Amino acid sequence: MITPMEFLMWTKGPLFQLALTIFALGLLARLVEIFVLGRAHNYAVPRGSAVVGGLRTLYKRFHTDPGTFKSAPFDVVVGIIWHTGFIIALLLFIPHVELIKSTFGIAWPALPNPVVDAITAITLLGLLAALAHRLLHPVKKFLSTPGDYVIWAVTFLPLLTGYLAYHRVINPYPLALGLHILTVEVFLIVLPFTKLTHIFTVWLARYYNGATFGRKGVQS
Q1: pLDDT tens, residue by residue, 60-107
Q2: 3-class SS of residue 171
Q3: Between the N and C ends of the chain, which has fewer C-beta atoms within 10 Å?
């Protein structure tokens, strides 16, 4: 029978290395696939700058256009809340910054733990609201696939287990921390092979679209 401490050391050691390897190789394969596809050469005379158009689109897409907000205000507001909260919990929580520093040798200022804790709670509520809306909205429910619910679960569980571990809800603590790390590793393993890849590819897609329109002298 594995002890809680042995479980924690297993998730922190070999399983963490395995998850990072699968994540890195999977993401690299997806990016290579995108770049290898390439695009046909455009022989038309440029009417504007592709680079300026790409960068302009990256900047503009940080803001929600009024039409989108008017048609789907719930999706916009809740989406901004939980996406922002997830990033803050991931990158600005002191233990996470220390882990990144020990793993990759880089670090940055973090937020106080109570602040991240409160943001995490709000993020969890936002994800629950998003799930309820998906289940109750007839069109969204019809269009949802099993994969969509898997993605929601692997996004929700790292936040939930981290929140429970921080508040010592699960005992002993090594078990709680091990469960949190395990859910993060599942997230890393799943990411390159699902829609979660958009975390990285969305920037490429936005730049590409903006560059295409920018070369034509129009804005995307």
Answers
A1: 776 777 777 777 888 889 999 999 999 999 999 999 999 889 888 899
A2: coil
A3: N
Question: How far, CA to CA in Å, does 65 sit from each of 32, 68, 77, 130?
Answer: 32, 6, 13, 20
| CB neighbour list of residue 192: distance below 8 Å, 6 or more residues apart | 22, 23, 25, 26, 27, 29, 30
* Spatial separation of the C-alpha atoms in residues 66 and 49, rounded to whole Å: 27
Give residue for tokens 């910054």.
97
Residue 57 has phi, psi (to 5 degrees) of: -65, -40
- Do the beta carbons of residue 220 and residue 53 sit within 8 Å? yes
Residues 82 and 130: beta-carbon distance below 8 Å: yes
Q: In whole angstroms, give the CA distance from residue 48 to residue 166.
A: 52
Q: What is the DSSP string of 119-158?
A: HHHHHHHHHHHHHHHHHHSHHHHHH--HHHHHHHHHHHHH
Contact between 37 and 204 under an 8 Å Cβ cutoff? The reply is no
- 8-state DSSP, 92: S
